[in-house]
Amino acid sequence: MTPTKSLHSRRQFFRKVKSDVMVGLTVLATVVAVAPLFLVLGYLISKGAASVNWNFFTKMPAPVGQPGGGMANAIVGTFELVGLACLFGVPIGVAAGIYLAENRGGVLAQAIRFSADVMMGVPTIVVGIFCYAIVVRPFGGFSTLAGAIALAVIMIPLVTRTAEEMILLVPHELREAALALGVPRWRTSLLIVARTAASGIATGVILAIARVAGETAPLLFTAFGNRFWSTSLFQPISSLTMQVYTYAISPFADWQRQAWAGALVLTVIVLALEFGVRWLTRGAAQVAR
Amino acid sequence: MPRVKTRGFSVRAVGDRIFNLTTLAMALVILALLAGLTVELFRHALPSIKAFGFGFLTSTDWDPTTDQYGALPFIYGTAVSSALALLIAVPLALGVALCLSEMAPEWLSRKIGFLVELLAAIPSVVYGLWGIFVAGPWLRDHLDPLLAQYLGFLPLFQGPQVSVSMLTASVILAIMVLPYISAVCTDVFRAVPRSQREAALALGATKWEMVRMAVLPYGVSGVIGAIILGLGRALGETIAVAMVIGNSPQISASLFMPSATLASVIANEFVEATSALNLAALVELGLVLLVFGLALNIAARLLVYGATQRRFQKPA
């Protein structure tokens, strides 16, 4: 073996080792990054599972200092808030998505698309202040309605962008075929194109639901929270997230225990939605985030 | 297309027009919301803007009892916690993105990608709860003493060690923004043309050399965009931070001490605002947050659009 050759092969060796080390580091980074997921889920189950029982789902919160009680009103509140938010947010989001998909190149469409993307990044607490200003102040109090509108504002850009992307996936030939058969444009857009994209749009809606169901900040001064049943849209209402927040920062052991249970239930709901979407799309489509 | 005026066609035109106008109106709602957000916040912050002017941003005085308000402690808390979170999250996120786009086989990459997505799906209040009872105490008992022992000569790592602190908040924030950064980076790396990689490999590059010569330079603007996007998330994150940062409006050099961020102080004090001026000052904090958020997001989106352009090109 000549000296140059050994030098050469040693260099090759170092390059290989360096490459392997870097590949190893990326794998390590991935392990470290995913570890918190399992840590959080593990703690949720070990600290929360014991307190998730029939009472938790059916009882109202117990007065301060008394043990027991549940989160029945908060669970119903979450469903009510999210349901109402969908009622406001989904039609607007889907229609806006259709507009963006049909006017792909237009200047206005581009401006709106950009605005939607930027809006996804607006801190949600700011949306809370906004809804406090436009709903809570004029109506004279915290209300279910204000909370639902805040969640809807967060949903709209998410739904819009997914709806747009999903509609664009529909083959153009389908639209052309419908138009060639003499179907009016609006019926083509709505009943042929949007319908074909329906499962994709549903995916976007479910992901948006999963996102807003876990929101706390925008609800703090819109829906406000309530230890009792909320019987009208103009009364404050509780949500799982707000109840978990209140209990977690409280000094009472029993409340902290219930906070873990609430967090577990909340996480199960959100993850179930995510898995549902996974199952619906089965690796098919990219979804806007 | 030449228009033939017959009865059927004009009815059709009316239907089309109604449909177009409806979708347009709904799309305009988005513009209206974005404009409304800015205008409403500005309007409600006006009393505070008038009272304190630019001094609001540079004053450290936050005292509802004397109605004196300054945003500096919160701007400082937000900046430091976000910067520290990025310092932890960015290298990890880059590692994850490279692992998913370059190293792992397709099937595995999809599975891990899904796990990372789940990390983003966990509600922020759950991270906060975990931070209060698990991560905070663990960091105080295990990481803080180590940092104090080996890096204690820095003012950053001096003083009493508390579980609700700037450091805890930054670690929780890092966990929360990581999936966003890595998701965008993965997209950016996947958009690098195959031919670039093949050219590097054909020249005899090792896997890492290929990444460094072909993938990273190609994706650099997208990666910067992803980082800014993550920064935007970190700035605005509210509940998890409010739960673990300790909410004390003070500027202290030590990362072991409690602090407060723009978002966390709004969450804590908004409902209990003692005066109209107090409320206006809190709204002005929100306005500061919004302006930063908008600026970062606009910059990030522009960069990411450029890097993943193929996805956004007009369909043929």
What does this entry show, briefly?
The complex is a heterodimer of chains A (289) and B (316). Chain A is mostly helical.
Structure characterization notes:
The complex is a heterodimer of chains A (289) and B (316). By secondary structure, chain A is mostly helical. Chain A has a single domain (69-281), classed as MetI-like (MetI-like fold, Orthogonal Bundle), CATH 1.10.3720. Helix content of chain A is 73%, strand content 0%. Chain A is built from eleven helices and no strands. Chain A has helices at 3-48, 54-58, 72-102, 107-120, 124-139, 144-168, 172-180, 185-196, 198-213, 240-248, 253-281. Chain A starts with a helix and ends in an 8-residue tail after the last helix. Mean pLDDT of chain B is 90; it is low at 311-316. Chain B is built from twelve helices and two strands, in the order H-H-E-E-H-H-H-H-H-H-H-H-H-H. Chain B has a two-stranded antiparallel ribbon. Chain B has a single domain, classed as MetI-like fold. Chain B has helices spanning 7-52, 55-58, 72-103, 106-121, 124-151, 166-190, 194-202, 207-236, 239-244, 262-269, 276-307, 309-312, and strands at residues 62-63, 68-69. Chain B is an all-alpha fold and 316 residues long. In chain B, helix 1 (7-52) packs across helix 11 (276-307), helix 3 (72-103) runs antiparallel to helix 8 and helix 6 packs across helix 8 (207-236). The interface between A and B is large, with 96 and 97 residues.
